[in-house]
């Protein structure tokens, strides 16, 4: 995904709205230096491309050893930025924070992908839009770096019928009629319907749904649902959401689902990135 200048400017303005008081008052702003980034732990790197864009925007000269998606060992060099101390300190925490949070997401995503695909090699780990507000671009880039797939970038480009939509219809018949109408109006899309049981899933498929997303349905039930639907409706994509994390992904992968939908990757510790700034 693109990392636009307006986001770079927003992130820099948030941390450096009026300059760097400490560096300026200590009289070192013009001293030439270098800032070295290294992985402190084994991880899957993310946020490095975004950090590089920020440092370039500030005018730093970069020597880059690793990009988003690279599997890193503790101590591996990521990049070195050369500029005066004023520029380096302005970009320091913005770049480091992005890499630490994004690398945490990418590393957790990669762990889920590996665990799920050890059982089902074709399983897609789809990460939801429950990223932290304002951080969608960084989070989605991190998901991609970890081998996952964005579930939905927003509500404008994908159709997902939740129970909170269904609540506005007086009965199931009118709901399914509206779904059929929506399917005809969006012929280039596979419409997704959230389901909690097999009966409604079949009705949604017959109404034209191309994707069925089982929400908070236990894996033992999906062991019954998925083979039945796979045999009868092989063209339908079958997804599971709700409670899927690093501890449960293998259990759900064994059900035969196509897609495991998760928000797990966004919760957890950032992955420490070592930063050293020194004069040259």
Give the helix/strand layout.
Layout: H1 5-15, H2 21-25, E1 32-39, E2 43-44, H3 48-58, E3 61-64, E4 71-72, E5 77-84, H4 85-117, E6 124-127, H5 136-145, E7 149-150, E8 160-161, H6 163-166, H7 172-185, E9 192-195, H8 198-206, E10 211-215, H9 219-232, E11 237-241, H10 249-253, E12 259-262, E13 273-279
Parallel strand pairs: 6-7, 6-12, 8-9, 9-10, 10-11, 11-12
Antiparallel strand pairs: 1-5, 1-13, 2-4, 3-5
Describe this structure in words.
The protein has 280 residues and is an alpha/beta fold. It has two domains: 5-112 and 268-279, Alpha-Beta Complex (Aldehyde Oxidoreductase, domain 3); 117-266, Aldolase class I (TIM Barrel, Alpha-Beta Barrel). Helices cover 41% and strands 20% of the residues. The protein has helices at residues 5-15, 21-25, 48-58, 85-117, 136-145, 163-166, 172-185, 198-206, 219-232, 249-253, and strands at 32-39, 43-44, 61-64, 71-72, 77-84, 124-127, 149-150, 160-161, 192-195, 211-215, 237-241, 259-262, 273-279. A seven-stranded parallel beta sheet has the order 7-6-12-11-10-9-8. It has a four-stranded antiparallel beta sheet with strand order 3-5-1-13, with helices on one face. The protein has a two-stranded antiparallel ribbon with strand order 2-4. Helix 3 packs antiparallel against helix 4 and helix 4 (85-117) crosses helix 5 (136-145). The protein starts with a helix and ends with a strand. 37% of the residues are buried.
